[in-house]
Amino acid sequence: MKDINVYRLTVAWTSTALIAGVLLAIGRQIVPDVLALVDRTGHDRDLVAAALLAGTLATWWATVRRLGPIAASPAQQRWQVWADPRSWQIRQRWRALALAVPGAASVGYVVGLASNDPWTGIVIGLALLVVTIAIALGQRRDGGPLFVVVAAAASLGLLTASAWGPTVGAVWGVAAGLAALPAVVSGSRSRRTHRLVPRWNLAAAAQRRWELAAAAIMLDPEVLRSTFSITGHRCPFRLPRSPMGRIAVLTGWRALRPAAIRVVIGLLSVLAVDEVLGTTAGLLSAVLLIHVVTIVTTRDLLAWRALPSVQRVVAIDPQRAVDAFAVPCVVVTLVVVSVVSVVLTPPWVAVIVLLLQPVVATWSRMAAADQPDELTMMSTPMGAVPIQFVIRLIAGTEAAVIAMIIVAAL
Amino acid sequence: MNDLDVLAARGLVKAFGEHRVLDGVDLAFGTGSVTALTGPNGVGKSTLLRCLAGATPVDAGDVLLDGEVCDTSAPDHWRAVLSILDDHAWLPGLTVRDHLLLIGDDVDQALERVGLAGLGDRRAESLSSGQRQRAALAITLVRPWRVLLLDEPERHLDSDGVDLLVELAAQWDDRTLVFATHSEDLVRRTGAARAPMGA
Q1: What ipTM describes this predicted complex?
Q2: Which residues, listed in sequence order, are joined to residue B69 by a DSSP beta bridge?
Q3: Which residue out of B94, B141, B147 would a mutagenesis test of the A interface target, given it has the greatest number of A Cβ atoms within 10 Å?
Q4: Going by DSSP bridges, is the β-strand pair B68-69/B60-65 parallel, antiparallel, or unpaired?
Q5: Candidate ranges A68-72, A276-280, A367-371, B161-165; pick with highest mean pLDDT
Q6: Triad A117, A120, A124: Cα angle to 5°
Q7: pLDDT beyond 70 at A145
Q8: What are the tens digits of pLDDT across the range A181-238?
Q9: Beta B34-38 vs B193-196: how paired, if at all?
Q10: Which of A52, A117, B29, B162 is the most buried (most CB within 10 A)?
């Protein structure tokens, strides 16, 4: 068993080193060429750099999701973990480090290239490394405070770097990294002193990981909210007499109260993107914001159509009720499009596209929901699932993609 | 069917593939009556309730409300006939109180009556099965109805919950209650008339 572990560790380290080397070589060759090509062809260098960064960050995030105890698959949790749980968890700790270092380094490398400032890249890379380690450690039941402290320290380091320059930030980043290192080492050096993560903690972590992944895939933060929030604040408004009015007010309150802050932050992000990367990028981010808002605010609408028992209890015309359920989406879309129109002053065609996007997305999602499951199966990383399920999952996204293409072409 | 019958099934037929679950069922429920559909699993108790509620289409036959053939998939029918069957569900974004507010007022009173006074602001999926069943009973206190269809209403309820159900059934003596059950105790305590199925 020990030999196998050593073998796997050796393979993991060698593979990581090889992949990191290849990526570094390709990156050194390709990224400057790409940016030079961008300059020659007259495209927006910042936009391309941002796209590169987004891709690299996505890779980093995919790496983070595979770190620490939450990386345990259900099969591992049930069988492998309990065969030798301590050594398995220690291996997970080292695996976290082995993945985190090249991940953070690649992000830092891209940032350094895009910003033409190697120190900025180093600082970002170190900060991501610290945060990654904190995430891996914070998954333990007793690791929460450590995660909060290290994440806060990393954020402070970024602020320090932006205020006093990259050198100060880099020094701080190294210090924070060194401060986090003993925690990792102490957790890994001895099998006797290593405290086991409780089984329920592993199961809860795996559940959270699944929810986070589902929320990211579906661009639906409601998946997380419905898990973490079991209560809702009472609606402070006087309810109208008509059931239609009550539906509009109550579903609007439930959807918009938690989403209001996110909509405001999303709008500020759109304005920031417009300021930094230009109108097209701003409009693209507005499309994304409207897509998320549409999904969040039409959740109960789709649930209503799928639940005949609720329709029978409320006992109003189901189709008219759909109109009432759509009110929150209409209101938020109008607010977002109004702000975007005033600040970004896009072409009128773009405004029409933004207004139509939620309509098309919602129609698409309703049409997909109406398709009954059949026996046509599709192979996915989650196993074989009905193809209608996959269509339901991605329905509405095509509206955002089409809107993005139109907006980008204007 | 006579003039006092508020809801009736006339020659109801419902089949799933080759299997006829309901084969020409004739039943009538008078105003103020309490009727228990009884019988072993698979004889069609829940299916009959679903047909009466408009939760599933019938293959043949009619459902009559006040002596008139009615469209069971229309909101007018649902307003008269409240059904809480095995497909009962809750909207994921709304709390229990929100659901009750969609259909009426006096929500706090109803929640207190069913023993959920402190749980109205919880989302339904966060409640236990028994609490959800109590919340479903709260619907019967908030929303006006003339006929109430319940499918195994004692399911998931503790002994206090069953007591509550019996009390409510006694309270509804001016309206029509039809329920499917396997509980002899519930039939006896509610004084329900038996409608054995599959006999």
Answers
A1: 0.93
A2: B64
A3: B94
A4: antiparallel
A5: B161-165
A6: 145
A7: no
A8: 655 555 444 444 445 666 666 666 666 666 766 666 665 655 555 555 667 778 888 8
A9: parallel
A10: B29
Window from A195-209, A247-261, A271-285 with minimum mean pLDDT: A195-209
- Other beta carbons within 10 Å of A150: 24
Report the predicted TM-score, pTM, of the whole model to 2 decimal places. Answer: 0.68
- Other Cβ atoms within 10 Å of A54 Cβ, number: 11
Question: Is residue A250 a contact partner of residue A235, using CB atoms and an 8 Å limit?
Answer: yes
Name the residue facing A314 among B85, B103, B121 (closest C-beta). Answer: B103
Cα separation of A392 and A217, whole Å?
A: 12
For residues B172 and B31, the answer to whether their CB atoms sit within 8 Å is: no
Find, in chain B, the residue whose alpha carbon is nearest to that of A234. B121
Per the CB < 8 A criterion, the answer to whether B85 and B50 are in contact is yes
Q: In what helix (H) or strand (E) does residue B65 lie, and over which residues does it extend?
A: strand B60-65
Q: Which two tokens stand for residue A381?
A: 């990383």
Distance CA B13, CA B178 (A): 19
With CB atoms and an 8 Å threshold, state whether B89 touches A310. yes
Q: Do B101 and A239 touch (CB under 8 A)?
A: yes
Triad B82, B83, B84: Cα angle to 5°: 130
